[in-house]
Amino acid sequence: MSAERRNAFPWRELPSLLSTRLLAAFLVPTLLFVAVAGTAVYQLARSILEEELGTSLSNIAAATASQLNGERMLTIEAGDDSGGTRTWRNLVRLLEGVREASGARRVFAVDVQGRVRADVGGGLPVGSEVPELARDRLELARVFAGEHAASQVLFTGSDGRLYKTGYAPIVHAGKVVGAVGVEGSAAFFGPLQHLSRTFVIMGALALTALAIIALLTARGLARPLGRLMDSALRIGRGDLTTPVPPEPTREIGVLARELEVMRGALESRDRQLKMMLAGVAHEVRNPLGGIALFSGILQEDLRAGAHEEAQEHVERIQREVAFLQRIVEDFLAFAREQPLARAPVEAPALLSVVQELSSAEASIREVTLEVDATPAVLEADGSLLTAALLNLVKNAVQASASGGRVRISGAEHDGRYAIRVHDAGAGVPEAERERIFEPFFTTREKGTGLGLPLARKIARAHGGELHLTSAPGDTTFTLTLPLRPSGVSSPR
């Protein structure tokens, strides 16, 4: 992300944005669940109770219709209720008994034209039409076809309450001659509405509790994330010295620790880079000065015809150029991240190759090389390990006096393979032991100071380590490496 985009993004508002998003993530699904689930449960409960009420009312109507004499009911005509004929009174008495026994609001009997023959609780006169039947015409069509039925919807009575009507046919001589209607109150609706209000209140309380939890959780996450974000921004701006503070939260604590490890690695790499740049500048400056000096003298000698002196200057220039080339090669070898080409490597054979490659310089200095290695198989990059060991042996040879010995040994130790390079030279002063593995630190005039850092880098790339123990007359570099896993066949 560019600096312009970083500045444009409201980083300081990130904690509050996170709090808002977490709050929404907590509440929106819960609110949707409460609304959908509450509505679904309410509608299901109401539907079940309505169906149960309709079935109950239609059964009461059927029981009432079974007690009626359809032929006598049809003899009731308009005005019989005023005169109080016996047939009408008997019918009313029957319907009144059903009304009282069932607790119904209204019980009435009608003929197939929908005209009232008796109406208890409704007060309609005989011969009049029942207005509510127009609302339930589909249900009545089924009743006049011989079925039980109930009104599909609740209706509001004059008292403001909700009611439902159940119907049953009145049969005479195998033919439907009328119907009985029983109106009952939907008394369940009051408790159901109370239950619905209670559910809403409980849902609101739950949402409030979740909102508080969400805010506390968001605050608990936003603050450490904000601190982590500030640390990341500091690192991004190049501040590699300020440590990343630890965080108590487990997951964020892991992020903080990993970010601190990354910061430390970047700081170490930045420090090494600066040291390398300073070292390269210092090391290159000297040979360049020598080349400039000797090339000028060479030019003067050539003009004067002094060819022998000119040849000496050419050789000096070539030595300086070779030293520059070695500086560049060592620098590239140390700076380059080389992938390991792992393969089975026999430890004794590896040390024998190192002895052979070091023998020429050892012979010049009259130093004896001794190798003693117990058999073992390493899973390693043979060429890189050879380069690392050559650096160690070269240092040991250069530190040894004429006629001295350098001992190269290898043996298993604590489940790993330890390669030791020992010399009896003057040793490394205690003040220099802490810096001996720093890039470009050297006490030799023509040393690059990259041999030992490169050797340690190669050891660590293999999962091993390089250590130094030194005292006058007893200096040992120990390179430890993991052994090849058991169960893997050895090379043939």
From TrEMBL:
Signal peptide: none annotated. InterPro entries: 2C_sensor_his_kinase, HAMP_dom, HATPase_C_sf, HATPase_dom, His_kinase_dom, HisK_dim/P_dom, HisK_dim/P_sf, Sensor-like_sf. It catalyses: ATP + protein L-histidine = ADP + protein N-phospho-L-histidine. The chain crosses the membrane at residues 199-218. It is an enzyme of class 2 (transferase). GO terms for cellular component: plasma membrane. The keyword Signal does not apply. Its EC number is 2.7.13.3. Residues 279-485 form the Histidine kinase domain. Coiled coil: none annotated. Residues 219-271 form the HAMP domain. It is found in: Cell membrane. It is a multi-pass membrane protein. Keywords: ATP-binding, Cell membrane, Kinase, Membrane, Nucleotide-binding, Phosphoprotein, Transferase, Transmembrane, Transmembrane helix. It holds the Pfam family HisKA. This is histidine kinase.
